[in-house]
Amino acid sequence: MFDIKDDVVIITGSSRGIGKAIAIQMARAGAKVVISSRKEEACQTVADDLKKEGLQAISIPCHVGDKEQLKNLVQKTLDEWGKIDTLICNAATNPTYGPLSELTDSAFEKIIQVNVQSSIWLSNLVAPHMIKNKKGSIILMSSITALLGSEVIGAYGISKAAEAALVRNLATELGPKGIRVNAIAPGLIKTEFSRALWEDPDYLKKQETATPLRRMGLPEEIAGVAHFLSSRASSFMTGQLLVADGGETIL
Ligand code: NAP
Q1: Which of 38, 41, 242 maximizes ligand 1 atoms within 8 Å of its Cβ, making it the mutation to test the pocket?
Q2: Whether the CB of 193 sits within 6 Å of ligand 1
Q3: Chain Cα centroid distance, residue 165
Q4: Distance of alpha carbon 46 from alpha carbon 28, whole angstroms
């Protein structure tokens, strides 16, 4: 059920953090993974490390906010491996911290373009190839901020809620063609992205107390969810937002 051997998987933002953990998990499960982020060298290092383990990986750098670079990502993947089984839209940005009353138009536009519009662009570029193959899973990396309010990362939360809405719409459109679309909503995960939060001892203590499992998560703990959503084990699931947050949102 969890067999993904030789599946071709594109993972945006896979040079570090959650995306890299997903790439390692899926490559070790036998998939052919495409490592992608803005920085060529960082992607190549991850791909080389996987290849040293005898695994299948290539590096195709891409800024997800640039449509031409997304087209190149899809074309180069097809040139190399001829198909795409799973697309994981994981890269995201959060250039602002503070109340919505101070949010600039340019910061909001950037958040929406990188976190939401890029996923629409990339899904639309990849879906025709999945449809041709009669097989495909698209996974968007949302967040529990999609479900909560915040005084400081509200715009980011709006973009993550939009991703949860996006999977319902893409799932509706692509379901009849055999393509499943789901999102993952992690809680606090220990990566560069969230460093400012978990490096603050007061914040971390409050966070841990407010989480039933009493700790933050690790990137590897999201990788298993992505593996599940890409595999036959989740074959009757589409349009869903899967929460993996140590229980934070149940309190
Ligand atoms: P991270 O460790 O900072 O990694 C982000 C990755 O995305 C890097 O590979 C980065 O590489 C790449 N990236 C950033 N901007 C990009 C762009 N415009 N185009 C292409 N690649 C880009 O972050 P993370 O914590 O793993 O976050 C991954 C996803 O999880 C995001 O969608 C985030 O919203 C979500 N998430 C994270 C947490 C958390 O607590 N960490 C919680 C909930 C949801 P380059 O710099 O080389 O481009």
Answers
A1: 38
A2: yes
A3: 15
A4: 13
